[in-house]
Amino acid sequence: MERLTVSNDRRIPSDVVTIAGLQEVLDQGWQLHVICQQDPELRGYQWYGSWYLVAVSPDQDEFVVLVTARDHARERQRAKKEGREERRKPGDIAYREIKTAIGVTSLLMELGFKVSAYPIRAGESLALPAAGRA
What we know:
By secondary structure, this protein is an alpha+beta fold.
């Protein structure tokens, strides 16, 4: 597994996706990156932190960020009501924050990964190999 460090440059994603859309781009050969936003801390028996999932195209020119289905649907409805195409500004949509280590594992399993791995330091990311999917 490749270990990458996230830069502080804020780029606007090519698109945002729900779980179904993320599954689709991963099936097309995109690579999944798990990004740690906040160092995890142990509370009781559970690790709490902040992680995001981002898929990067094979040529690394594009990337998509996972959002909740609610955010995606809300923008679609707003665009339809206003008679315009969908367009997203960075402030329009909240990326799907995963708040527990088990939450990361659950999503990775849902996406077909055979191994669960994620960074544990804020600002770091971990690229999961496509070969690790079922």
